[in-house]
Design brief:
With 87 residues, the protein is α+β, with helices and mostly antiparallel strands. Helix content is 30%, strand content 33%. It has a 5-stranded antiparallel beta sheet with strand order 1-2-3-4-5, with helices on one face. The longest helix has 15 residues.
């Protein structure tokens, strides 16, 4: 992930969710994991290497983490809109 893409990601997060805590993990494969902390909840967005899909998992109970995604979206904006409505 280059600096331009990182800035774009942060702008979109702020646009959809406001000023929230965000961590970004960049994998060697080109995929990324974005962890967002909002309203005492944690959400993880997994962006595929080509950014063609974004898997979203909202963790509502810290003791309980399930495998798989709650939803999969084609764009980061769609994934963030989903989070806005659920966190």
């Amino acid at each position: 992930m280059d600096a331009v893409e990182l800035q774009r990601l942060h702008r979109l997060v702020i646009e959809f969710l406001g000023d929230v805590a965000v961590d970004v993990l960049d994998y060697p494969t080109g995929a990324i994991a974005v962890t967002i902390y909002r309203h005492n909840r944690v959400a993880v967005l997994d962006g595929m290497a080509d950014r063609s899909q974004w898997g979203v998992t909202v963790i509502t109970e810290p003791e309980y983490i399930h495998a798989g995604y709650d939803q999969v979206f084609e764009t980061l904006a769609e994934a963030l809109a989903y989070l806005r409505d659920r966190t």
